[in-house]
Amino acid sequence: MNSLSQLKQALLENRLEHFMFLGGGSNVLFAKDYNGLIIKNNIKGIQVEHEDIESVYLKAYSGEVWHDLVVYCVNKGWGGIENLSLIPGTVGAAPMQNIGAYGVELENCFVELEAFNLRTLEFEKFNKQACAFGYRESVFKRQLKGQYFIYSVTLKLNKHPKTNIEYGDIKQILLDAGIQPENASIKEVSNAVIAIRSSKLPNPKELGNSGSFFKNPVISVDHFEQLKIRYPEIKGFPQSQGVKVPAAWLIEQCGWKGKRVGETGSHAKQALVLVNYGHAKGEEIYQLAMDIIKSVKEKFSITLEPEVNLIG
Ligand code: EPU
Predict the structure, then answer these.
(1) Architecture of 46-200 per CATH?
(2) 110 touches ligand 1 (CB under 6 Å)
(3) What is the pLDDT of residues 140-163, one digit of tens each?
(4) Whether 298 is catalytic
């Protein structure tokens, strides 16, 4: 689909019964064949809506490739999304799950989005509050699931950016490259993020995967304290509702890291990434995910929740 009028016409004529939208498809697992029409979003364009001395308000259409938008901004010197470099998928999918990485989430520079209401066939605007962003969450994954088509996203970017280099290895990678972390440009931070991602996360074009398959679970403080007695090395990140623990660690402790089951497996460098070695069917990946959920539940009494969108 290259324009919304094609979709509107089809909806008006009631020609569409069972359909779904696909951006890049990088965060979707088809556990079964989809019995309906899959509409591939190809609506492209990036434009400055408004700017002042400090900021640029940039509108990107939903079929744009997310990383292309990051590169566009980095090359212009506009900061805000450089830590989200190399995340697969499209601009339209970004607010759907409030993409996040290396200490930054989309919501940090999100202004608003335009969405097409599939029932009324009208456009509606959603500001940050209306999107109800959470950790890999938004209203479009929950209450409004399947009711809207995200058409464009507007971000506020900083012309005099302050970099965010606190997460994980970013500082070390900069130092290794002879760059003083505090003086790093957004391009250098973007390159550091690309280096980290490339070293841990398999390229989906080379080895099928959807990034993190599960969310990092948030458990109660009591539960965490109990686990800490048995597993003193467990990491925990305090949150308002409890403690977030790394799903990758839980999966690794259950012996899944690097394990291959038929044509599927947990990645050797990042246990949270489930991979397809080439010929696995969606249902086989699904089965592996269920087996992992079961063993983590048995060992830690924690129920992992998939981060990818499961179809079927
Ligand atoms: N760890 C392990 N075993 C592993 C990998 C990691 O024990 O195999 C532990 C380490 O202790 C590490 C901790 O897990 O300190 C966290 O690992 P990492 O920094 O790689 O991050 P993550 O929590 O596994 C999250 C996001 C990623 C994002 C990275 C960096 C989720 C579900 N995943 O992964 O997002 O790139 O942080 O910010 O929140 C994605 O959503 O698809 C995705 C790749």
Answers:
(1) 2-Layer Sandwich (3.30)
(2) no
(3) 999 999 999 999 999 999 999 999
(4) no
